[in-house]
Amino acid sequence: MTTRATDETSSGIRLGLRANLAQFSLLVAVNALVGGMLGQERTVLPLLADDVFHLSAYTSALTYILAFGATKAVTNFFAGTWSDRFGRKPVLIAGWLIALPIPAMLAWGPTWGWIIAANILLGINQGLTWSTTVIMKIDLVGPERRGLAMGFNEAAGYVAVAATAMATGAIADHAGLRPEPFLLGAAYVVLALGLSTLAVRETRDHARFEAARHVTPVGSEHDGELTTGQITRLTSLSDKALSAASQAGMVNNLNDALAWGIFPLLFAAHGLSIAEIGILAALYPAVWGAGQMLTGWWSDHIGRKHLITAGMLLQAAAIALVAAGTTFGVWATAQVLLGVGTALVYPTLLAVIGDVAHPAWRARAVGVYRLWRDGGFAVGALLAGVLADAFSLTTAIWAIAALTAASGLVVAVRMYETHPRL
């Protein structure tokens, strides 16, 4: 028996997808519920801002995305630090406890301030729960299958976003914008809190097990003794792969804020029904979500960099097609292409972080990356709103298409290949 096998047996810890399949599958299910909490807003809330609260300025109407993105970005950073300090499971449970009042606030909140407050809580919920499920899956699978693991994680979340967006659109088309569409979110919270409390197991010892056997290249600065400040600088600026991934993640979610807040308003302005808008709102995350199961696995075989570059450029082309289009068919094609481009990028960026970061500080690196990535929601809401108010909806869309293309070129020039075998 090898030393590694002996160590695994004596510690009771084994790394790998097959060895941890039950817990991994449970975490996939929990992350689907995380995505469902986000999906309950994708179709209904932009229309709610216009039809119920009569917010005529686009910047004002997108304040809920700004509040969500800013809160989630900051919470991501602390989620990584707290996961290292207190363990993954307590952070996960805390995220679901914070989510308890959100559906009621969305369903019956009397003013727009209640909607903004609900999205602040949603940002905290998403930051704690999504970050933690990412970290826990990376802990369990070890270095060989990170791309596949992230593909499953993000697929579960965004397929649930799509399914819930379509479901709430259909419900709203028949029962109205409130309160019925948000009752789905209430069911998600109760189920997820029960699973996280009763069935999910702590995975921090898996990261410690991997860290004890991690081999750091001679002369590498990426060892296990870095402070949080050093990790923040590495992930944000000094490491070419980590920093390129951080900016790409930010721009990716910047254009997701556009899809969330501006696209439904554009579609409504061209006379589409709520049900049709719900279908378009679901197409993008559905393709994105399902595609990640393939693209995460694919990045484990051909590497990360080229998939990310291609994905960002495809997203830019898809967003430009939305700006140029005027019919349901063109927009549906654009949403499918946007989903494919995002699927190429999303799990692969997380795999880059897992490749480069030492297991001892990987959770904090994930937190810093997700700080930048989800900060894109806030930047995107503000940028799209200001441009739409100053010029037009299509001007805002064209501008973000150009920014997305520029981000892909940054990855092509700056990022190095990070896959261990490549």
UniProtKB/TrEMBL annotation:
Membrane topology: Multi-pass membrane protein
Keyword entries, A-Z: Cell membrane, Membrane, Transmembrane, Transmembrane helix, Transport
Residue ranges annotated for the Major facilitator superfamily (MFS) profile domain, each copy included: 20-419
Protein name: MFS transporter
Gene3D superfamilies in the record: MFS general substrate transporter like domains
Highest taxon of source: Bacteria
Gene Ontology MF term list: transmembrane transporter activity
Coarse class of the protein's main subcellular location: membrane
One Gene Ontology cellular component annotation held by this UniProt entry: plasma membrane
Location in or out of the cell: Cell membrane
Taxonomic source organism: Streptomyces lunaelactis
SUPFAM superfamilies, per database record: MFS general substrate transporter
TM stretches of this protein: 21-38, 58-79, 91-108, 114-135, 155-176, 182-200, 310-331, 337-359, 397-416
